Amino acid sequence: MSQTEDQATGRKGQDRLRTFPFAPFEWLLASRYLRTRRREGFVSVIALFSFTGIMLGVATLIIVLSVMNGFRKELLDKIVGINGHIFVSPMDTPLTDYAEVAERLSKVYGIKHAIPLVEGQAFASSNAGGATAGTGVLVRGVRNEDIVKIPGIAGNIKQGTLDGFEEAAGIALGRRVAETLGAQVGDTVILLSPKGARTPFGMTPRQKAYKVSAIFEIGMSEFDSTFVFLPIAEAQAFFDREDDVNTIEIFLNDADKVDDARAALELAAERPILMQDWRQRNRTFFSALEVERNVMFLILTLIVLVAALNIVSGLIMLVKDKSSDIAILRTMGATRGAVMRIFLVTGASIGIVGTLAGFFLGLLITMNLQTIQRTLFPGAWDPTIRFLSEIPAEINSGEVVQVVAMAIVLSVLATIFPSWRAARLDPVQALRYG
Question: E strand or H helix at 206, and its extent?
Fold first, then answer.
């Protein structure tokens, strides 16, 4: 064969390898480099660790963020479900016209309910269980037509009924209050208040017995062990109020639109009022949840970053081991871009497959979190210590997409430097010393 024919053959070989980006032969070589071989066992172990690290990091991120979202939603639903969104209090004169004010406020656009409340501290006791038991409670007086509108109460009655609540002059107890007192529906509970009648010898405590009409369970131990409800007239008499209320609680259709309703509520009240919303009352609590969530996201992102850095070390070792192969490819006509893409695909495949595996694992665990909790850790979640009765979880599709995208981007970025080094390899030096 003549020299001209040799050169022509070489050019044909080069033309075969100089194909479009991400050609089939690039994927073929990348897939071969990912397979386990005895000589490259250590490289494969590093790749396995990288894959496992990214998978666990992504899965943990999805699970933790979903649990934090679930906590926020559940606590917001519980707290707002019984406490309302905006609290209207009088400024100059007592709220003796609460019925008219509440009626006007309830007609404002975006307002769901306006509920007048009498609120005060008391001590509850009962000897229904054979022995006298007592506990401190927060007493709330509400109208008969309003108590059925409070979502945290009306939809969570476990015993008894709220029908005829005002006419019966009964009392509705939280489940944990009832358990502490040993009381059931039909039993008698005695309320004691230090602010009673004034006498020449000072103020005497006031006490009165009420029949238990209903027992409710909100699902948040802090509330179930504290709240009791009375008819508004009984609460006014018990706390010695002259036909007025402490506050009017406003329930909105959308809890996040409190700012939009403020101006309209001030106009509708037609009297000087002081307003607070649920964000002001629970600012510290929800701010702490947000800070904790952001810190957990940062810490768990480092897991994914460390796993991505393992891809770098694995690829560098693979490039060193395959230097002779790279040199042969270059002499056959493979461009530097083709060599770089081969190792880019090799490293990115580990990260992308690990991310997808972590995505499915995270979703699987999150969607079955309560079942896993009840099966593996039946007594580990104590609702008396933690506010809720079980671990909540809510998957936010936007956050899941962000986690998956972040893991894929980190994985691809981690492969750029080793792939660039492979493309810059001098084939002459590699063949001489390889």
Answer: strand 206-216
Instruction: Dig out the tokens for 64 from the structure.
Output: 């933790």
Which is nearest to 318 in space by CA: 40, 31, 32, 35? 40
Backbone conformation region of residue 59, classed left if phi is above 0, alpha if psi is from -120 to 50, else beta: alpha
In contact, 342 and 41? CB cutoff 8 Å = no
CA distance between the termini of the chain:
30
DSSP 18: S
Total structural domains within the chain? 2
Nearest to 255 by CA among 86, 14, 74, 87: 86
Distance CA 192, CA 194 (A): 7
Assigned domain for 181 exists = yes
* Judgement on whether residues 162 and 185 belong to the same structural domain of the protein: yes
Give 140's strand partners.
119, 229
User: Does residue 85 fall inside a structural domain?
Assistant: no
pTM over 0.70: no
pLDDT tens digit sequence for 276-314: 888 787 777 777 778 887 888 888 888 888 878 877 877
Do residues 366 and 393 make contact, with C-beta atoms less than 8 angstroms apart?
yes
Q: Which of 219, 245, 271 is the last residue of a domain?
A: 271
